Amino acid sequence: MKWGETIGMGHLARLEKIATLRPARRLLLFSGTGFMPQLEEAARRSAGRIQLIGLDRLYESD
Amino acid sequence: MIDKPSDMFDRDGEWAQLSRFVTSTFERATLGVVSGRRRQGKTFLLQAMCEATGGFYFGASEVVPKPEALRQLGDALREFTGSPAAYRFQDWGQAIDTLLALATDRPIPVVLDEFPYLARESKELPSVIQNALAPRRTQRLASRARLLLCGSSISFMSELLAGQAPLRGRAGLELIVATFDFRVAAEYWGLRDRRLAALVYFVLGGTPAYRAEQLDGETPQRVEEFDDWVIGHVLNPANPLFREVRMLLAERSFQTSFTTPRPARATRSTWRPSAPMANSSRWAR
Ligand SMILES: Nc1ncnc2c1ncn2[C@@H]1O[C@H](COP(=O)(O)OP(=O)(O)O)[C@@H](O)[C@H]1O
Ligand SMILES: [Mg+2]
């Protein structure tokens, strides 16, 4: 979670590296600001493995 | 189901549980326990329930010697019943039986709020209540009282009902009044802007009293107002919120001292209160 930063592919790469050490079924990225289009695209193609959680989703979805 | 007062925000679940407990047609006195951190609205809920049902509420104000606590309870009872004669209790046994006798024809809540204060000076109180509520005891069978013990020390309140404790297995209600989660809090503060709602939640969490009392309802309405609001209210030494973190930590060590051995002196004296609320204005950027 980076509150003030727009989250992009760099953040995802870091998380992927951690996931090689500690395998995870899903990767959750949170942001208070938003996500880069490239990352949004990657999330769309990830079949649910990459989840982007911005404020709207945090406050609205179940 | 008793109507929830209109000035009570959320708490539908808690209200429903309490209603069910106090209106149950069980033909004997029953016991419930309500706990939750300070300032979450326990007293608010219980007083509202007593108002709605004609119940009796007594809140111990602080730790006082047993005779004084019994005298205060007697005064509250006299006010409640309008009795011309004063109630003079020699011990808790008499006091609890008098409380049970308040509800003979219909169930009403009978609340002892800040119960840990009372129990601190009267260690026998839980066993006195256990005895008063013994399954076949005449006074219990004749009473419809819904006796509610309430306290802010969650560990103390849950230990009341745990393990070898006298009241273990006696309670028909064990209600925990939790702090509002971030979504409920946003609604409570009336913050539509998600970013602002999150920022305010980072600083205050979900404690309802902060808006109602410490802030007099003063919350920022626009995200641009957030920094000034933090400086003007939370980081303002004249606002009680400024010292709140310190108070919370002090309360905690006070409350755990009811049930756990005191930490060694050395650890106590090396403890330093941290700065008040973390400097959160930088998050607003
Ligand atoms: N559900 C609620 N709706 C509106 N205000 C509330 C609610 N719960 C608590 N409050 C406010 O918070 C204040 C503190 O609550 P209180 O009942 O004294 O907390 P506790 O007894 O848990 O320490 C109340 O006086 C009231 O102003
Ligand atoms: Mg209270």
Overview of the molecule:
The complex is a heterodimer of chains A (62) and B (285). Chain A has three helices and two strands; from the N terminus they run H-E-H-E-H. Chain A has 62 residues and is an alpha+beta fold. Chain A has one domain. In chain A, strands 1-2 form a two-stranded parallel ribbon. Chain B is built from 14 helices and five strands. Chain B folds into two domains: 12-176, Rossmann fold; 182-243, no CATH class. Chain B has helices at 12-23, 42-53, 66-81, 92-100, 115-121, 125-132, 138-142, 154-160, 182-188, 194-204, 208-214, 226-234, 244-256, 265-270; strands at residues 30-35, 56-59, 108-113, 145-151, 171-176. Chain B has a five-stranded parallel beta sheet with strand order 2-3-4-1-5, with helices on both faces. Chain B is 45% helix and 10% strand. Chain A binds chain B through residues 3-4, 32, 55-56, 58-59, and chain B through 182-183, 186, 194-195, 197-198, 283, 285. The complex binds adenosine-5'-diphosphate and magnesium ion. Residues 42-43, 113 of chain B line the site of magnesium ion.
Features:
heterodimer, A: 62 residues, alpha+beta, two-stranded parallel ribbon, 3 helices, 44% helix, B: 285 residues, alpha/beta, Rossmann fold, 2 domains, five-stranded parallel β-sheet, 14 helices, 10% strand, elongated, disordered C terminus, binds adenosine-5'-diphosphate, binds magnesium ion
What layout of secondary structure does this protein have?
The complex is a heterodimer of chains A (62) and B (285).
Chain A: H1 9-21, E1 27-30, H2 37-44, E2 50-53, H3 55-60
Parallel strand pairs in A: 1-2
Chain B: H1 12-23, E1 30-35, H2 42-53, E2 56-59, H3 66-81, H4 92-100, E3 108-113, H5 115-121, H6 125-132, H7 138-142, E4 145-151, H8 154-160, E5 171-176, H9 182-188, H10 194-204, H11 208-214, H12 226-234, H13 244-256, H14 265-270
Parallel strand pairs in B: 1-4, 1-5, 2-3, 3-4
Helix pairs in contact in B: 4-6
